[in-house]
Write a structure and sequence with these properties.
binds adenosine-5'-diphosphate, Rossmann fold, binds magnesium ion, six-stranded mixed beta sheet
């Protein structure tokens, strides 16, 4: 079998309490693939994303990106992590400086750095906010600034943790269209199953630190029994509707 873009093999993460919050996760993501990561609160979605980046050290197992093992604690510019809480990600005085931090991480300086920052801001549509203090941004603008700060490092795989959480409809739509237009592979952890359906042909369902299902999004998200077993509901757009009105058929 040829190497996938991302290959996680038999990942375990044990918390200091002794609890295993990831229990043998094996996952392949191909270049350009968009995969939705769904499951109830506490299932281990965030833990899995952090373990893939090496931020959180796996107790067992390996993660490879393009065949290269990701060392825990190391910096892997090929992986771009967008935090659920933008405040955890943004720390520079201005938007441009925050994005420049990422550019410096991959060794850029001078004019190429300025160009890369401008391009990243342009790509997410916030070039006009370059000089704005990060604490003067709306929630939606913060999320876009975080995305720019990651894109500037030209990652091969984006790891997005609840990207639409706390966004208004306009910013949610803007984000969906932005992500749809990108050619990077993505692993998107989300409770927003309609967003997952729009963006991800494939879904991985996790619960209690284990992969419960991995396959076509419509088949998994549309399986009422499977979804209910893991505290989920079939998203509205996959439920049958009456022809008259819009009442659900029960
Ligand atoms: N810093 C931590 N220390 C101990 N346990 C944690 C920590 N963070 C998360 N957990 C536990 O790990 C499990 C998985 O959490 P998490 O990955 O955040 O789930 P999800 O993102 O799917 O909601 C939960 O049981 C949670 O309580
Ligand atoms: Mg989470």
């Amino acid at each position: 079998m040829t190497a996938a873009l991302l290959e996680a093999h038999d990942l375990f993460v044990r918390r200091p309490s002794g609890l295993d919050v990831l229990c043998g996760v094996t996952l392949r993501v191909e270049a350009g693939e968009r995969v939705g990561l769904v499951g109830p609160n506490g299932a281990g979605k965030t833990t899995l994303l952090l373990a893939l980046t090496g931020v959180l050290e796996a107790t067992r197992g390996t993660v490879r990106l393009d065949g290269q093992e990701i060392a825990p604690g190391g910096f892997a510019p090929g992986l771009g992590f967008v935090f659920q809480q933008s405040e955890d990600q943004l720390f520079s005085p201005t938007v441009a400086e925050d994005v420049a931090f990422g550019a410096r991480n991959i060794g850029l300086s001078g004019l190429p750095l300025d160009r890369a920052v401008a391009l990243a801001l342009e790509r997410v549509g916030i070039r006009g906010l370059a000089a704005r203090p990060v604490h003067h941004l709306s929630g939606g603008e913060k999320r876009l600034a975080c995305l720019a700060g990651v894109l500037v490092m030209a990652p091969r795989l984006l790891l997005l943790d609840e990207p639409s959480a706390a966004l208004d409809l306009r910013h949610r739509r803007q984000l969906i269209e932005l992500l749809r237009g990108m050619d990077q592979a993505m692993l998107i952890a989300s409770h927003d199953l309609e967003l997952v359906l729009e963006l991800c042909p494939r879904v991985v369902l996790i619960d209690q630190g284990r992969i419960m299902a991995d396959g076509p999004a419509r088949a998994i998200l549309g399986d009422g029994t499977l979804m209910a077993r893991h505290g989920q509901e079939v998203p509205h757009s996959l439920t049958p509707h009456n022809r008259i009105g819009h009442d659900h058929q029960r």
